Amino acid sequence: MPKTLTPAGTLYRGREGQWSWVAHRITGVVIFFFLLVHVLDTSLVRVSPEAYDAVIASYKNPIMGLGELGLVAAIVFHAFNGIRLILVDFWKKGPKYHRQMLWSVVGLWAVVMIAFSIRHLSHVFGG
Amino acid sequence: MATPTIDSPRSGRVSPGYSRTSSSRGNFEMIAWLFMRLSGAILVVLIFVHLYINLVAGDGITGIDFGFVAGKWADPFWQVWDLTLLWLSMLHGTNGIRVIINDYADKNSTRMWLKGVLYTATVVIVVLGTLVIFTFDPCPVIDGVAHVADYCPAP
Hints:
- The complex is a heterodimer.
- Chain A is mainly α.
- Chain A has helices at residues 15-43, 49-58, 62-90, 98-124.
- In chain A, helix 1 crosses helix 3 (62-90).
- Chain B is mainly alpha-helical.
- Chain B has one domain: 3 helical TM bundles of succinate and fumarate reductases.
- Chain B has a two-stranded antiparallel ribbon with strand order 1-2.
- The interface between A and B is large, with 37 and 38 residues.
């Protein structure tokens, strides 16, 4: 019988628990790297008003506008799922309802993102 | 028959086979875990208001320029708001990346280097951001030329 490369058993369970954990990590890393850039771009207010306005102008073009939509989507998911994590850790029934709470997070995230997209894209595309 | 009592995970001593370092770090990891939850709860409020004021209210992103920042930081309330946001988000983010490095970098030297770069970046960004908030000048004079804005004294 050929030696298989796939482990016979794994601790990873998949489904809501594992995938929300993966999404939390990815969104967290994305937000952190934007944060580093964001402090640097804001620091240009100490160089000159023109330097700051020039870099902020680049945030107003349509491609960056879509990037901001992605960033806000990551932040809103990370925030809502973070509240879910706090409830899983500190609320007695948290672990029991963690799946239902994830779908609430996803639903709430969708509502917030639809509203934000309409507002932000109309700013970016000059509505 | 009596139900056997099972200790909660990681209570008592953890088998050396599951520990990457032999030294004990006290309860640092528990403090870090608690900090992530406390700072996270505060950050949700700080960031949602930050996003609302900057991207949703008024002209959104199209309204952001030097004058917008000057208007905000003329008020100590927003200076403290942004300072708290800077410190909490950087510490929350740095601890998150630290945990990810510990999870995925197997070699001691790789972990040490990655964390060295991480902590250096954190200190630079936090110090820079703090100085920018407290030394901000809404009416700078650059190379003898005064900035012109309706809130600045006429040159």
